[in-house]
Amino acid sequence: MKQTPDEKKIQEKMQPGSITLEGFLGNDNRHYHEIIEEDLHLLNNLGITKEQIADKLQDITDQAFESYDGIITLENGAIVEYVSVRGKVVSPFSGQKPSPKGFVKYYDPQRKISISWCPLNIQMIREFGFFEGKGSPNRLDPDLIFKLFFA
Amino acid sequence: MIILVLQTTGIMMVMGGVLAALLVIAERYLADYGECNIDINGKRQEKVKGGSSLLSSLNSRNIYLASACGGRGSCGFCKCKVIEGGGPLLPTEKPFLSPEEISENIRLSCQVKIKKDIKIELPEAIFNIRKFKAKVSSIRDYTHDIKELTLDLKDSSTINFKAGQYIQLHSARYGKVKQSVSRAYSISSNQSSTDLVQVIIRLVPKGICTTWVHEYLKEGDDVEFTGPYGDFYIRDTDKDIIFIAGGSGMAPIKSMLEWLLEINSPRKIFYFFGARCKEDLYLTEYLYEFENKLADFEYHPVLSQPGEEDKWQGKTGYITPYLKDVIRDSKNTEAYLCGSPGMINSVSKGLKEYGISESDIFYDSF
To answer: Does B30 score more than 60 pLDDT?
Structure first.
């Protein structure tokens, strides 16, 4: 696949050990463009937008952050914890502001499903529709997000 | 017809790509900007070879601006004022600059390429920042995820810093990590010990630098760092002091307390240290000893979720409610905070509600 120098840089920054220890692509051998395309296609079929997902995750993140690293219970019974860490993490995409390093742990006791995300996930979803590659420890599967928050 | 259009478009795209590549090659290998002058604050002149970034050119003259990404334009730390000769503002800089900063000609020094003489302004404190080589003389475990490193400076170097300031430690390559990264860590040692620095580092899950420190770095290893950075230090007033910290935020507060002890400070001082449970507490006995050494000091560890096995009889819950009991005069009190963004966010709100002025609340915005 032909890549611009900027795209090549982004793909490099997504490799393990560049920005994060695990990288952003997991065991997904596809170019990040293809990962984005497939996930956006899936969102389209599900009838939601990347912005709606980013807004939902941001709303939960804000509520948890306000709790001063405590544990909160949402109206739907989900248990949420914001684990804040000093420092910022940069985006593999160009021209983005660094995000706080903390992360959110979300547990839905009814469905017995746990997921976690960090502010960088929200930024990458909102701006680019990038949910990370399959097998990446921080991938937010759009199907699962839909089931948890929009079904 | 369609095939013809596609062919023409394809040819033009290839030609465009070739031209762009030629321009990059020409810029890299053929452009000669000669010797350029960096005028710093109208007082200091540094001659450098043109063609490199302002950040790396300053580094080559032993002037170190903070940078966590090694000049890749992704951390936004290396800001400086460019008065003349910086060229146009680049799209890669805009996300990191506020409208006020843009109007004041603040730039990201890693994105400014030196092509001609340039005039810049730097805070005087920058000139105290140097690059140091050091040997790890000891690694001490404080908790399951917090370690203290002692770094002995090599080559008879000495460092002058104010208690509360930080260094940027450069990690080595290891495992999948193919490049060094720089991360900021507050100095925990006393500012009068100028031949070493100590830092307290908490393991961040999957963090590149903290994983290196916790799992790869050994006593006897050589490391490099730059510093000192930051304006988080004790203001020279006679106001009461409230220190509030959590986790590795202990580091600058420990350094500040050791300094206050050294100068026999008569100020009234409280220190609240927040942790989840007893196993997250460290240096407890050491800190209680300051109650007997400093003129007027109280140490208060506060556990947010003590377990039954902790048999904890001290303060519990969040720190903020306890603060109003120790504020004698809100106009005459300073607060120094170091910890997670969640803690800083919550505690600063509380302090302001209790009447402490925003200008008397100090913290490092890492």
So the answer is: no
